[in-house]
Amino acid sequence: MRKEAIMERFFTSLISGNRPACRELVDQMIGADLPAQTIMSELFWPVLEHIQNMYRNDQLAAIGFNFATRMLRSMVDQMQMRLPMAERRGLTAIVFTGPEESEEIGGQMVADMLEADGYDVYYIGGGVANDEIVNKVAELNIDKLVVFGVVPSTVPFTRLLIDHLHEIGSAPKVQICVGGGVFNRAEGLAEEIGADLWASTPLELVQEMDANPMKRMDEDQRTVGRKRRTKMAA
To answer: Residues of CATH 1.10.1240.10 domain(s) within the chain?
Structure first.
């Protein structure tokens, strides 16, 4: 079956609440020896994005959105158990997201793939205050701060979080990695808030983190907090 047809069948089953049909399709893919990472990155993620876009544009009713996101989260939970685990890297990542259910599912995929890739991962999800995140980053001596799938309303809080981390210097080695959500729709936003790395999908973000472990945004490239620093200098 063509990839487009599989995605359409999965999407239709999800938004109609047909749980057995969703499981049957995924079982067929597992039976065809498709790796768990492939199922997550080439089926779960693009269908989730499609569902988010349709719901955001009022093309999908709330009941269909809820059917889909609740079932998809359950399937991501199950697929995580099938991801082969790489050797531990000795690096720690903390992942947080926007507050919506669909954003948390994307963040969970990132967390699962990072853990399978050898990172020690702490997954927060959404709805946690900045000061709690800052304290946890310092307490755990985090190497990677991953912000995935934030919604527009949470961008100012994300900006303040990154600015605060740079200001207080409690985690000087931390690499800030972002992707998904509003970062996929607003060109240049990742750079504007001071991110070191950014990518569109969970798998791409993990690959970018592997390929560029030492990449950091230069101080003069960061727009976040620049007005405040200029004012203080003056």
So the answer is: 3-80
